Amino acid sequence: MERVIDVRNGRNLTMLTDFYELTMGNGYMKEGVSDTIAYFDMFFRRVPDGGGYCIMAGVDQLMEYLENLTFSKEDIEYLRGKGIFSEEFLSYLENFKFECDVWAVPEGTPVFPNEPLVIVRGPIIQAQFVETMILLTINHQTLIATKANRIVRAAKGRPVLEFGSRRAQGYDGAIYGSRAAIVGGCSSSSNTLAEIMFNVPSSGTMAHSWVQLFDTELEAFRKWANAYPSNCSLLIDTYNVLKSGVPNAITVFDEIVVPSGFRPKSVRIDSGDITYLTKETRRMLDEAGYSDVKIIVSNSLDEHIIRDVLNQGAEIDIFGVGERLITAKSEPVFGGVYKLVAVEKDGRVIPRIKISENQEKITNPHFKKVYRIFTKKNDKAIADVICEHDEVIDENEPLTIFDPVYTWKQKVVTSFYARPLHVQLFSQGKPVYDSPTVLEIRDYSAKETDKLWAEVLRFENPHNYYVDLSQKLWDTRQDLLISHSREYI
Amino acid sequence: MERVIDVRNGRNLTMLTDFYELTMGNGYMKEGVSDTIAYFDMFFRRVPDGGGYCIMAGVDQLMEYLENLTFSKEDIEYLRGKGIFSEEFLSYLENFKFECDVWAVPEGTPVFPNEPLVIVRGPIIQAQFVETMILLTINHQTLIATKANRIVRAAKGRPVLEFGSRRAQGYDGAIYGSRAAIVGGCSSSSNTLAEIMFNVPSSGTMAHSWVQLFDTELEAFRKWANAYPSNCSLLIDTYNVLKSGVPNAITVFDEIVVPSGFRPKSVRIDSGDITYLTKETRRMLDEAGYSDVKIIVSNSLDEHIIRDVLNQGAEIDIFGVGERLITAKSEPVFGGVYKLVAVEKDGRVIPRIKISENQEKITNPHFKKVYRIFTKKNDKAIADVICEHDEVIDENEPLTIFDPVYTWKQKVVTSFYARPLHVQLFSQGKPVYDSPTVLEIRDYSAKETDKLWAEVLRFENPHNYYVDLSQKLWDTRQDLLISHSREYI
Lengths: 489, 489
Fold this sequence. Notes:
Two copies of one chain form a homodimer. By secondary structure, chain A is of the alpha/beta class. Helix content of chain A is 38%, strand content 19%. Chain A has helices at 19-30, 59-67, 73-82, 87-94, 124-129, 131-154, 171-183, 192-198, 208-213, 217-227, 241-257, 274-287, 303-311, 323-326, 438-450, 454-457, 471-488, and strands at 37-43, 54-55, 101-104, 110-111, 118-123, 160-162, 188-189, 233-235, 266-269, 294-297, 318-321, 337-345, 348-351, 368-375, 381-388, 399-402, 410-413, 416-420, 423-427, 430-431, 466-469. Chain A has a seven-stranded antiparallel beta sheet. Chain A has a six-stranded parallel beta sheet with strand order 7-6-11-10-9-8. In chain A, strand 19 (423-427) and strand 20 (430-431) form a beta hairpin. In chain A, helix 6 runs parallel beside helix 13 (303-311). Chains A and B meet through helix 1, helix 2, helix 3, helix 6 and helix 7 of A and helix 1, helix 2, helix 3, helix 6 and helix 7 of B. Chains A, B: Residues 15-139 form the Nicotinate phosphoribosyltransferase N-terminal domain. Chains A, B: One of its GO terms (cellular component) is cytosol. Chains A, B: One of its GO terms (molecular function) is nicotinate phosphoribosyltransferase activity.
């Protein structure tokens, strides 16, 4: 067992970085450009699962990371041992003090392709270094919050419980995955640590092993009802739901729970034909006088299966969703990228672009500001407009927005208000933003999602929400494209 | 910001558990059965991606977790606040001492569906509690090691570098994902922390941002060669690989690297038509006298794309593989489960079974021992035989193995040796196993994979490796099935 760091007792994530961030840092310093002020955008190009939007998440953890950036003596020793880093660079790291400005879209906000979710401005040696962790943090939580938002919408108001810890991709996949699932709208998580860390309710009752431990299912149910008469929830599919699980549950409700002065809470079904079994279970419970007992279902669910079983008339009150949520199984990668968009020279901001043979991979240059445009009529969001950093949208003038590729697709907007999309997280390295609680973020997210048109909310083939460039930024981009094209193509 | 625990300074994962492990624990105690000795198997039912086998991983982290199981005062306070746990249970947790026996298949071993990867024997209150973390740990690392093994095989001896940290599902997804990728055969990881924690080489050079920072690509390459003349690797696709990247690289090799007395190392291509670009790049480098300069490729690769581009004659020396490896994108869930298989009564081991309408979900009961059978002729693995715990396979007698479903499919094996598959990790709560290093595990894994027949190694439609039951265990299972079937169906 060779580990140097015990992750449970003093974990330092500063070195969770792609090694090239360090070779570049050392290179910037060697070439005398490490203090050049650079601007980076973190953004994504495509919504997973063909959806219409994503839900921003992970800002609180990003701040935690940036606030705690420190290289330990051991880190420095390790780097020295690689034999490629200058002493000047190592001593810079040893005395590292974060100095960047950082802006981000608040957690829970619906976000769209090609707009910056995080903007970093600072000495390139620093703004570069934080790339890996910005991407890792935002990519992961935004992926899961987005998936949770879809699943919760499919459940049409029924609570969705996050059950996936055992199938998560690593411990933090479970921990921050639970957090992101709540941001996306889940009611609670089975993960106990998530309650301790994020003050989000955790819950759970019994597994099949409880039932198997005893000689019969009936005995197992009796024991459980004895232990938890006031909060009796039974897992009824260990042997046979309708022939054994439901009748035994009713027996125990009659025999123990009701005589103790309580109402039983729920039954859970974790396998089999959900639609058929829940309809029959509902009928049997109702006939026995237990129409108030909830039916919980939890078997490889996602937004599509939930929609289907509800369409089929399944009688479900609560969904438990596991592996397909906690790993975003249908599309488990959130492809956020972090690109240099400008540098400062003599106090002026010079935009930079990354060309590609792939049209979609060409970046939007420059230090930006994004406005979300809402119509005053019903507060629905109409479009996001990406501007240069010093542009102001005048709400009293008609606003012309246009597609950045098919520029003849234009629209003049009146009677609107424009809300800047970003908040500032750090000012010259100092934190200046106080994260809301996870439950506050969940409420905010639900409200902001409601401001999207129904056409954008569709699971399949949603309307493409407009993310446009201001005329000024469009001109800047066009100029850069033309000059690079003349040079290289 | 509401967190109680700072994950970077004193992380305790004991509470990373599904809440129901705690409600069951409390229930076992209330009902006086918490000391009942129970046996649990952790196993999986299906190989991801339609492959022929998985690569076991995560044992070292599982041991670390089990060795450090402790409930802090804050954990106990939190649980007390839930108002459903008895003081007897809380005081048990406060004085928790792990007492179980644990066996596992060593990391790096090829493993197959339905055989136990981990076996736990102990008081049910403990053997139950560790479920979530056993599954989380083994599911995650086995998933990634298995995917890495596929990708590395596709590369046919060329080094595969793990590049995926930024797209991992959470910090541990990156950290332990890197580790598992090395177990599965990757040469190194871009994740610096992985080198520090697991003593596995990390590496990396430059990003597009380095190139963009300077006014021209040529200037950027010159600066890099000045900073790293002895180890010069250039990213050549920021603007145009063939018109700009390769010519500029050659200029800088000629101008700076060679005159400094070094040979340039490599060029990297991260976008575009890999086959065409690498062939042309190879030709241009060769013509300029740089046939020793390696070509690294890294753009959304997986085993299928690697196989395809190599078949097309792409000139690639090294692969960098990111998101599709670190998230096992094509199938991001490893469906390991943890099932009660036996209990002790009056010192006798009583097998237990979980029935399901789904044939594949019916469990194999009993406390088990697994033998891997190798033919003496060429040391290839023929079958795994799952036995009851006290069975011994006599290598001097012919061994009849048979399919557990189609029992007429039989085979008599002679001239074989039988190797027990498990090692013991804990004896009555004490660790008794010393994990090899990650690099040792990688070597062992490569050797064990070589002992599988080529038909089992295929990416698609591999031969089903035999995982059979001993006659004794088969009889036990059949008896339990018949008795449950009479009772419930």
